[in-house]
Amino acid sequence: MDFGLSEEQELLQETLRGFLSKECPASRSREIFDAGAGHDAALWSGLAEMGFVGLNIPAEYGGAGMEVLDLALVCEILGESGAPVPFFGHVMASLALIQGGSEEQKSLWLPSLAAGEKIASIALCEAEGEWVPEQWQCGVAGDRVSGSKSFVPNADVADLLVVGVAGGGLVLVETGAEGVNVENLDGIDRSRPVFRVEFDEAPSSPLETGGDVARAVSDAGLAMLAADAFGAASHLIDLAVEYAKTREQFGQKIAQFQAVKHQIARLALDIEPSRALYWYGAYAVEHLPEDGPRAAALAKSHITDRALSAARAVVELHGGLGFTWECDVQMGFKRLMFDRGFLGTPAALRDRCAVLAGW
Amino acid sequence: MDLEYTEQYQVYREEVRRFLKGWPLTGEEADRPGAAGSFRKRGIEAGFVCRNVPTEYGGAGQEPDALKDAIVRQEFYAARAPGDLTSQGAGLLVPTLLEFGTEAQKKRFIPKALADEERWCQGYSEPGSGSDLASLQCRATLDGDDYVLSGQKIWTSNAREADWMFGLFRTDPSASKHAGISYLLVDMKTPGVEVRPLKEMTGGMEFNEIFFNDARVPAENLVGKPGEGWAVSRATLVHERNLIANPNMMRDTFNDLLDLARRVEINGRPALEDRALRQRLVEIEGYVRTGETSSMLQFTAGVRGEPLKAMRPMMMGKLYSTDTMQRIQKCAYDLLGAEGMLAPASEDVAGWGRKVTATGWVEAYIFSMGPSIAGGASNIQLNIIGERGYGLPRDMRPPSS
Predict the structure, then answer these.
(1) How many domains does chain B have?
(2) Whether the complex's predicted ipTM surpasses the cut of 0.90
């Protein structure tokens, strides 16, 4: 019984944090953010060289064969720095391939995904929020898929999409193929832009799966988003602490005012203990099948909800500056808006938690 | 991360379960007074209760093993069997004496506290010294081999039932405020010690005030050195906050809330089917689950000997638990409707018990404010989190401190 990280896992986080502080300081995130580019190719190559983008891919395909918890630990650090890389969609897609791909599909794709030479993403949502396999309408006729998916992260740079289809199955579609049209949705989080993808009899290759793989991949995604939100919120609290210790009013640092100190302490209280909640969710989706889906949904709903509330207070704590485009707070804030919405809002996930508990 | 127990510990868990088949007691034994105490005694002999207290002080004297501690706690709790006491004596005084007491003090006081043969109360707060505890004025003046006590303590839980008090007294008024305080053990039967009950807003009478009129306490009852009382009391306080931050209590009370939501109705249907309530329940459970998993994280950090890695969640534990309990109680109170106007009945004893009746929930709703005051008020907890957890500046203090 050990509820803690291994030395390797701690090292994984430290290494990534160190790398991002050099290669992706706030100024670099902002360049990408302001340009609306949504993807830092150099940063992605760096992450690939260090083995992060194939972290969960089995060693036989060139990856590191690690677990969902390890992915979540990476997401926490990416959330802290607001790194503009297509990591989330990429590992979601590779999880689907690992769980549902044929040997041929895996051999074809996983090595280049592990090396980061090809980028993958995941297309689940339909219309304005139909994330659940039972809701999907995209139709497959023969080896062709038709329909529309929304909120597909980084589809503009993706080579491969894992697409949820009617009946809850998943198919592979190459974005370069005929009949695939990608349209930018102008998402609020410019570190992970989202796209609508239309399929008009696009060539596809089915994964050997029913809805259970789509569900399992979504559950892992919930844990990763909870981790990302935890990281982003922790970073925002650090910004608030830093600002309160330097900003002066009435002749003293504003952190000296108990109202400010207590406000920050309350934010920390709302966020810091939930590190354990996302660890548990990420561990449970892999190791505790009876509790995993609910634990991941609970973690994602709780942390993203608390994190966005905290982010609003962090804006307030920065005064007029906090409300500006120029202030870095907005980048973390908007990162959280993605984390909250993707794979279902807190309200939708709480409904699911209630059902899963048998209430 | 591995939430399985290794075989060694699974075997140990089976041993504990076999022992617990003896509880609840049956027949003649169950009817005898002090049945819980005699079962606890059996638990000590079997090595499961008071595991970490040496045998010469009445404990089981087992090798320290936090995982075994946890298994025992879980199994005794599940069986609702009498295990380690969480009283002021066993829960607070004993660990303090083990750390700071003399050999004679340990031998004299620990066995009886563990056996619940002597009850203890805590003499810290004074009318003028609440959050600013170190400003306390209650005097202890050395006169020959005795300290002579004069002054007043207040908010003392269970003082009327207590045989002894551990408390803080000012022994050196000329020293700076933290340095002039000493930790003394006071026999409540000492002439010059007077206890008067206070009535709480729940209607209960757990609180008391205590007056000292030249009460003489032998100097050998000093714990630690003169002027070390503040440091000694900090150790006790950590134990007290750990007692308050109990994730089992959060989960049990949350389960009680679910039962309530099954019983009461909204629009003619069980409240648990109401979407707004279900949303609120899951939201509250997010806090409960966070409390549970965070305490697992803190536990592992302790087992690994790396408590500093869990410093922030540790200093948050008490406030997190207090707030979570209040969320549960407020939700339950909202489900009560007109019964929420009723006064707690006399059997709705102080808030820690499990809640079944409407008036029990009323009592719990009121009682849940207590932990945000006791053991370091929530505003003080926020100071600790901000200052020690996040390096924010300390409150302005007068230059003398």
Answers:
(1) 3
(2) yes
